[in-house]
Amino acid sequence: MATSADHPVAACAAEMNFDLNLNSIDIVDLDLRDNTLYLIETVKQEFNKLGNHCAILRNMKGRVLVIVKGGKMAVFEEMSDSEITANAPRTQFIIQHYKETLPKGLAVAISVKTEKKTYTLSCKDKKLHFKESAAPDKIDGKEQDVLFYQERIPGHDDKMQFKSFLYPEYYLACKQEKKSIFKLILKKGCQDEEGSTKFVVRYECKKIGS
Predict the structure, then answer these.
(1) Residue 109, helix vs strand vs coil
(2) Nearest 5°: phi and psi at 146?
(3) What is the C-alpha to C-alpha distance for residues 110 and 147, in angstroms, rounded to an integer?
(4) pLDDT tens for residues 75-132?
(5) d(Cα 123, Cα 94) in Å, to the nearest integer?
(6) What's the angle, vertex CA 197, arms to CA 192 and CA 203, rounded to 5?
(7) Chain centroid, CA 55 distance in Å
(8) What is the per-residue pLDDT for 142?
(9) Which residues contact 126 (CB under 8 A, 6 or more apart)?
(10) How far out from the chain centre does Cα 62 lie?
(11) Separation in Å, CA 57 to CA 47, 181, 183
């Protein structure tokens, strides 16, 4: 019988701890108080790869996220199980987990391996797009545009929100642009009647190695 510890999110969260690497501490200021000199320290915010999981992502209406040819954007489409398989690997997203120096949540990057290239989701300058690269092994100041905090919806193990690391008020969301076109976007705020920032995450495709 599976337990909550068997869930991919719970398993990765359990690997995160508060052990500090002394090499990650910088002295950033000096403070003289009562004739005593104090060294004010800070801990560098670093992210190092943990495990990853292959997932199918759906919006709250059940539409499946798929990266379009060219790899620059992703849309939600109605698909049967057989169509999801037929459109793989463009329907199979790699949720790459990271261990943070000072954990604030479950940090992840979202990538997809197409037939020839690998793309990773970026929200640089608040503009959502897939850039041609794999998720970095280590993030220590650069490439933070690919980081999101994966947040579980209370009471629902498979429903998640993805909050931007760089822009904490912004979330991944589904937006209807035309009658039959539903795009993955970056949206300010996470509360709306449609549940546009909520996703059903199912770890039901073949795992892709690191």
Answers:
(1) strand
(2) -95, -5
(3) 8
(4) 999 999 999 999 999 999 999 999 998 888 999 999 999 888 999 999 999 999 999 9
(5) 17
(6) 145
(7) 12
(8) 83
(9) 167, 170, 186
(10) 20
(11) 24, 16, 13
DSSP 124: G
Mean pLDDT estimate for the chain: 83
Cβ proximity of 109 and 146 under 8 Å: yes
CA–CA distance, 131 with 140 (Å, rounded to integer) = 19
In the chain, DSSP assigns E strands to 25-33, 36-43, 47-58, 64-67, 74-77, 93-100, 106-113, 118-122, 129-132, 138-139, 148-152, 159-164, 170-178, 181-188, 199-202
pTM above 0.90, yes or no: no
- Is there a cis peptide before residue 168, judged by omega within 30 degrees of 0? no
Other Cβ atoms closer than 10 A to 208: 17
CA distance 49 to 105: 14
